[in-house]
Amino acid sequence: MIFPFFATPDDLCDPLEWMDGTGDFVFFEQDSRPDLPNRVFDCFPKAEFLAGDYHMPVSAWVKAAGSPPVARMVRFNAEARKELKASGRTFLESPAIIRFSRILALQGDYIAPVEFIYETEISAGKGGQFDRSQIGQTEWVALRAAVNGIKRRMKATSAGRWKSKLVMAGVAEELRTRPVKLWFWGDEGTI
User: Fold this and answer.
1) Residues linked to residue 115 through DSSP beta bridges, in sequence order
2) Dist CA 191 CA 122 (whole Å)
3) How many domains in the chain?
4) DSSP letters along 43-86, please?
5) pLDDT digits over 2-20, tens only?
6) Sites in the chain below the pLDDT cut of 70
7) Which domain holds residue 22?
8) Closest Cα partner for 148 from 170, 118, 123, 175?
9) Which residue in 60, 76, 110, 122 is a FRET match for 85, CA 20 to 30 A apart?
């Protein structure tokens, strides 16, 4: 499932730090850097998340949901091996992983949504990404509870809504101080 909302990287730190404070999540790098192992973090890696022009996507495993992440090696094609000087990377997968993606929300005159991505029992069974044992090991009630807790936290700290999408405080400030608009699949506007 995808839950789109509008947030700056600073806005995202609130729910991520809240998640960290519960002790219910393990934060990690879902896609490793080329030829390196996936990094697992003792706590939400805020400084690294906010550093530089690229904000790393954040993935977390919901411990109570079981089904620990499984590593899958992705081999680069010849062109990528030559360009990256690496043979591949490792991807961690589990139906009990949640993630935030498209972190660079400001794109020119538009702010695109961030996506909070998670699985349901129905979505995990479609597409063949997960094997039956992973799906069977997942405690769906615990995963739903974790997802709903994160959504409640985001709703409580949002500054408003646009077209049913949450708009967090940093984005609301961008809208007040700059000539930018919210964008969602061809539709644009403001709060």
Assistant:
1) 4, 101
2) 34
3) 1
4) S--HHHHHSSSSPPPEEEEEGGG----EEEEEEPPHHHHHHHTS
5) 999 999 888 988 999 999 9
6) 52-56, 102-107
7) 2-189
8) 118
9) 60
